[in-house]
């Protein structure tokens, strides 16, 4: 399983800013290794976010997203103490889910 995501969720009024740093190699499948062979594609292709168990955001990514991607978004209606969950799946079937509390 991949390294844990770094999630920060900070409330300000009736909104919360969510910042996520995901550890992933994100290979596009177009780069060559030192012997000249193509490095196989390996990238996150599905990302979802939940607030207290309810899906609030989904995204479909492709091979052009950079290594160790950073995601930031704002949630309306989130308040301190709420649970924010982030999940991803990649094109090889690996996945990761982590959770943070809004502060």
Termini separation comes to 27 Å
Poorly predicted segments: none
Main beta sheet strand tally, sense and closure: 4 strands, antiparallel
- Main sheet: strand order: 4-3-6-7
Q: Radius of gyration from the CA trace? A: 15 Å
- Count of individual helical segments: 0
Overall shape: elongated
CATH H level, superfamily name: Immunoglobulins
CATH architecture: Sandwich
What this model shows, in words?
With 103 residues, this protein is an all-beta fold. It has a single domain, classed as Immunoglobulins (Immunoglobulin-like). It has strands at residues 6-12, 15-21, 44-51, 54-60, 70-76, 83-90, 95-101. A 4-stranded antiparallel beta sheet has the order 4-3-6-7, with no helix packed on it. A 3-stranded antiparallel beta sheet has the order 1-2-5, with no helix packed on it. The model has no long low-confidence stretch (mean pLDDT 93).
């Amino acid at each position: 399983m991949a390294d844990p995501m770094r999630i920060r969720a900070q409330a300000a009024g009736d909104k919360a800013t969510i910042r996520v740093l995901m550890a992933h190699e994100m290979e596009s499948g177009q780069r060559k290794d030192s012997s000249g062979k193509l490095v196989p594609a390996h990238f996150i292709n599905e990302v979802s976010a939940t607030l207290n168990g309810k899906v609030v955001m989904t995204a479909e990514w492709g091979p052009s997203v950079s290594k160790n991607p950073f995601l930031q978004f704002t949630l309306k209606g989130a308040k301190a103490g709420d649970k924010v969950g982030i999940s991803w799946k990649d094109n090889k079937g690996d996945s990761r889910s982590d959770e943070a509390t809004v502060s």
